[in-house]
Amino acid sequence: MRFAKVHACGNDFLIAEGPCDPQLAKKLCERHSGIGADGVEFLERTGPRAGRIRLANADGSIAEISGNGTRCVAAWMAHTEGAVPGDEITLDTDAGPRTCRIVEAAGSHFLIAAGMGVPRIEPAQVTLADKTLVRGTWVSMGNPHFVIVVDDQNFRAHSRGWTELGREICFHPQYPQQINVLFFRMIRADEIEIRIFERGVGPTTSSGTGTCSCAAAVIAFCGGKSPLAIHAPGGTQRVEWSGPGTEMILTGPAGLIAAGETLLG
Question: Is the dihedral of CA 204, 238, 72, 99 positive or negative?
Fold first, then answer.
């Protein structure tokens, strides 16, 4: 089976053309016995610069959408179809269609602006096993996120490290399908820093929908301003949003790493 490997701010994906196969995805994503990735985007091309994608996480679970994964597929299609800045690629996801516009193209590296849909936002809270009440913001970008604001530079909250707290909320009984957990701290009104605990993967260097979810919470409830620069461990992305009821635009890089053939199956 042919594959490509692409990353967006270190959030890496394999792209395989054909129907979704969650068990194959688990094998491919293994860092030591497979190729290694945070997930596999299964792509079925439906026309020039158009396709249908379905995402299987590293643990084989199905996710509705990945903002970074969608952008990685767009970069691969731009590469294989000779797209140039200004061209658009439309991808159908389990969260609905997403349009990606090529902003810059330089060899195997692309800057892509992706329409991410209209966020849904509401206050949320969860009670942990030790009865600690954690307040945050529930945001849907077509997939669910629990967003927490922190003041600590190490992203500690409620006397826990962010990975420990993120894991407990991700697997909390209140969220039987699990939930992505995001932590952000304000730098200034148009700039924040985030950490990501992603369902089906764990801590990740970046997340497109997570970036958008933090932006939604910051702009809606914390005095944030668009465009917003959002720094994750893997790099910086930019979000433009006019507020509730409008579509969010996520701009960030995607870089091709490799293409080849796997004997796994």
Answer: positive
In contact, 116 and 250? CB cutoff 8 Å: yes
Closest CA to 76 of 46, 114, 41: 41
pLDDT at residue 265 above 90?
Answer: no
CA distance 142 to 65: 7
Same domain assignment for residues 90 and 208: no
List pLDDT tens digits, range 42-59.
Answer: 999 999 999 999 999 999
Cα separation, 253 vs 103, whole angstroms = 10
Question: Do 110 and 194 lie in a common domain?
Answer: no
The distance from CA 205 to its chain's CA centroid, rounded to whole angstroms, is 10
What is the C-alpha end-to-end distance of the chain, expressed in Å?
8
The amino acid at residue 228 is L
- pLDDT, tens only, 160-212: 999 999 999 999 999 999 999 999 999 999 999 999 999 999 999 999 999 99
Question: Domain residues for 173?
Answer: 120-246
- Are residue 131 and residue 236 in the same domain, yes or no? yes
Distances (CA, A) of 235 to 1, 10, 68, 76, 122: 31, 8, 12, 20, 28
- Kindly report the pTM of this predicted structure: 0.96
The CATH number for 6's domain is 3.10.310.10
Is the model's pLDDT at 99 over the cut of 90?
yes
CA distances from 239 to 37, 217, 228 (A): 25, 12, 5
